[in-house]
Automatic annotation (TrEMBL):
A GO molecular-function annotation: 5-oxoprolinase (ATP-hydrolyzing) activity
UniProt-listed GO biological process terms: glutathione metabolic process
Domain Acetophenone carboxylase-like C-terminal, chain residue ranges per copy: 509-665
Occurrences of domain Hydantoinase A/oxoprolinase (ranges): 203-487
Stretches with biased composition (Basic and acidic residues): 597-613
Protein name: N-methylhydantoinase A/acetophenone carboxylase
Top-level taxonomy: Archaea, Methanobacteriati, Methanobacteriota, Stenosarchaea group, Halobacteria
Gene Ontology CC terms, in alphabetical order: cytosol
Taxonomic source organism: Halopenitus persicus
Region feature (Disordered): 597-616
Boundaries of every Hydantoinase/oxoprolinase N-terminal domain copy: 8-176
InterPro entries recorded: ACX-like_C, Hydant_A_N, Hydantoinase_A, Oxoprolinase-like
Amino acid sequence: MVEDDYYVSIDTGGTFTDGYVSYPDGSTTVKVPTTDHDLTVCFRNCIDKAAAKLEKPTEEFLVNTDVIRFSTTIGTNTIIERSGPKIGLIVTAGEEDGLFSAEAEDESLIAGEDLVIGVEERTDADGEVVDPVDADEVQAAAKTLMNRGAKLLLISFANSFHDETNEERARTVIETEYPPHYLGPNQVLTANEVSSRPGYRTRTYTALVNAYVHRPMARSLYKAEDDARNSGYSNPLLIGQSTGGVAGVSKTVALHTYNSGPVAGVLGADAFRELYDLESVLSADMGGTSIDLGTIVDGELERNLLPEVADMPVHVPMIDVHTAGAGGGSVASVSDGELSVGPESAGAEPGPACYDLGGFQPTTTDADVALGYIDPDYFLGGDQQLNADRAAEAIERQVADPLDVSVAEAALRVRQRVDGNIADSIETQLAERGEDPADVTLIAYGGAGPTHCCTFAEAAGITRIITAPAAAEFSAFGGATLDVEHRYSEALGETVAGDVPSVDEHAFERTIERLEAEAIQDMAGEGFDADEVALQTSILARLGDEIREVDVPSRIDDSSDLDPVIDAFDADPEDEIDLDTLVLTAVGPVATEDLDRHELGDADPSDARKGSREAYWPGDGWVETDVYQREDLVPGNAVEGRALIEATDTTYVVPDDWTYTIDEYANGIIER
């Protein structure tokens, strides 16, 4: 095998870390437990397991690996666990109290009011520095914040999105007083580094959340990259971004990684949408902790231009993912005769009761084991043995006895409740977008997705489902489709009234040229020549509370060039549309996965039948049910429900009236 044959994509989830490896002769997947205490451990474990599966020493495998993409939950975990550094905020005098409001109830968990100090300075609304920042006042503020325990200082001044002079002056003052070799604040960050959009409070929140996750993110990602390099990998480690691409560690903004794993799954679903020429798709990633839903309507990904992180709005556009507490580890309980499942999760440790690791609460996975859907001796292809007795005991004690029903009936109710909750979330998502479920194709994945997708799809009115051969590792597959992407922005501060723009064409052109030069320089650092980089200009525009990002030409010659901005809003001629921010997106192509097409064979799946076992089905109780091996099914095979299809990474539950067919791309199409 020649060098640079392997392309690796790793996705860290709440319970498992998945790896997808492609190479000239095919692809393979691996799964390892997520190590919450240090995500670089499961990152390396995933690489080691992939190398072993390919019968290669890790060093040889990494020497021959061209690309590693990594979607990580480091930032997400840091926020959830509140494990980031204590941050001291230096703001414009008079703005201290405005940061603490009902709009962002949770920010005090990151920076308490005693860690916010205002200093006298002023930049006016036109970007003119009226009052320069005073060095002595900044030094005093920094000293006070450090005495109160701040380990990192953040500077955010009003209107500095126009001109960062005062922010940078304050940073220089602090770094001069406390140079790096002193044990003072070992990092000083400014808001202009992460947001050039107007809106002082949101800009400050953006910088605050980024600062909070910056240090643990940098420490972990550089450790992961260094570990891979020390073992033979010679290229940059590419980090998944919530905006929909990847970037090298040194070019990654910490906040941009937030929720990047679920986003990679949605982008994998979008690749399937293109492959099958579909109009509207719903992605459903059901893992151990939760289910993540993404919508693609009329071929367009749903993007949130003002998402919230830790209950704070931030200036980082993200591909929209709706998360619900319904996964394999969701805990079932009964209170006052009412059964509930989730959002509490047993996680990976101790996990469901059937894991036999000390967990005692019944979960969705315990219910699937008790119903006979999951073979306790073949979980994860036999890599992990489950204890069916522990599952039954937990369900009996905490669900069956309180409801006065059998263990099997209690397990079925747990399954129906969690699937009903998911169906409710799907119906809400589609209704908000005016979509008829019958017109939507579901892309189901995650470790628990194939086990539950038919039930919650039917409850939501969806009749067609697509699953990949490596459904449990599909988010890692989605990561393998991502190109290197960077976004650059600068405040525009112009308006469009009716169809008459007030844009200074020459200033617009100068700004674009400056952003393009920065983009080309950064992409050169990522290994791309200028002619390999695709550039797209867009404008973040606002009408009232409505925000849209609209593609526009990179050069404005006349008013008609801004027609797309006007057309994006249902505006009256006299309405003024604010052109808040000019955005340049640079994309560098990275080799991605192409799915092979196969000839369709016979529909008879009997060669893949591995036996049968009793399973408990709604309305019929215990029924002897055929069991098939997913890896032995070939294109053209069709499995009629009721049936169980076991794969090395998940189990497909195919009820009555559903048919599971392997298509020409070796994907599983489930229809009713």
